Amino acid sequence: MAPHTGVYGFPESATQAQDLAQALGIPCHIAELHRFPDGESLVRLPQPMERAIVYRSLDQPNDKLVELTLAASVLRRQGATDLCLVAPYMAYMRQDIVFKPGEPVSQTVIGDWLGRCFDRFVCVEPHLHRTPTLDAVFVGRPSIALSGAGPIVARLRADSVAANTVIIGPDEESAPLVDAIAGPLGLTGIVGRKERRGDRDVTVALPADASLTGRPVVIVDDVISSGETIFSCGRAARALGAASLRVFGVHALFPEGVAHRFVTEGFGAPLSCDGVPHPSNALPLAPLLADAILGFWEE
User: Fold this and answer.
1) Which of 5, 53, 58, 216 has its CA 20 to 30 A from that of 246?
2) At what angle do helices 106-115 and 61-77 cross, to 10 degrees?
3) Does the pTM of the predicted model rise above 0.70?
């Protein structure tokens, strides 16, 4: 990594920013945030760098987006010529078309907003649906969308996952993640079909001929928020004879009550990657992110 390059993090994800800096062998600086009584934010960033890697996941995104914009303006004014936003969780990607009259195409709005602030982007499982690549979101800006499969594969391999384990994703959108986990481990992977009637009203159906009797099942998904998709998928797997259930999520957004429910309903404690700080974090993303960033600047 060239000199005059540093990682800039924010207080809620200081540990993850420091881990990334350590993986890259460069300094890390944590922004100072102040919130005025009227809700406005003040951002202070020390130690100007020519190349700045700004680390922040955009869960609970609204205040964070404003603070990122302010941070980018400070770094530019201090002389940064190349700003890379590492946002393991990228917000507002699901609304990529107008579903009902009067709605915005939020993906385009946020892509244009952040594209005016940063020169390049690294995200993990950015929840793209009809958009083929992250480059189509941040038009004209080099962008990398990483799979969260690698850390999950590493954990399952370290746990000596049984050879008859089945990897299940709840819907067709999870198929690439299922394939990227099942393939390297030589396991069977299947995907279900999800019917969503509301944010917390979801039913997952698995293929009726899925061979699950007496076999351990690992359910994987890119985002776990309410948990209802995973619970429905688990019920379907049990109905087909699954012997045990484990859950892995790339991004964990669920509250403490949902975490407790996973345990009481026999799923065990779910494990997640650490892009979004969460008590379930067990799978570090820093090595994956560092490799992607190094690839950017080696091109």
Assistant:
1) 58
2) 20
3) yes
Instruction: Say if CB 72 and CB 103 are below 8 A apart.
Output: no
In a structure prediction context, what are the per-residue pLDDT tens digits for the chain, which is 299 residues long? 555 899 999 999 999 999 999 999 999 999 999 999 999 999 999 878 899 999 999 999 999 999 999 999 999 999 999 999 999 999 999 888 888 899 999 999 999 999 999 999 999 999 887 888 999 999 999 999 999 999 999 999 999 999 999 999 999 889 999 999 999 999 999 999 987 665 566 788 999 888 999 999 999 999 999 999 999 999 999 999 999 999 999 999 999 889 999 999 899 999 999 999 999 999 999 999 999 999 877 65
Domain-wise residue ranges, the chain: 5-146+284-298, 149-268
Q: In Å, what is the CA distance from 272 to each residue of 71, 151, 249, 262, 275?
A: 28, 9, 5, 13, 9
Please give the CATH topology (third level) of the domain spanning 149-268. Answer: Rossmann fold (3.40.50)
The residue type at 6: G
Which one of 3.40.50.2020, 1.10.340.30, 1.10.3720.10, 3.40.50.1820 gives the CATH number of domain 5-146+284-298? Answer: 3.40.50.2020
Q: Which amino acid is at 266?
A: G
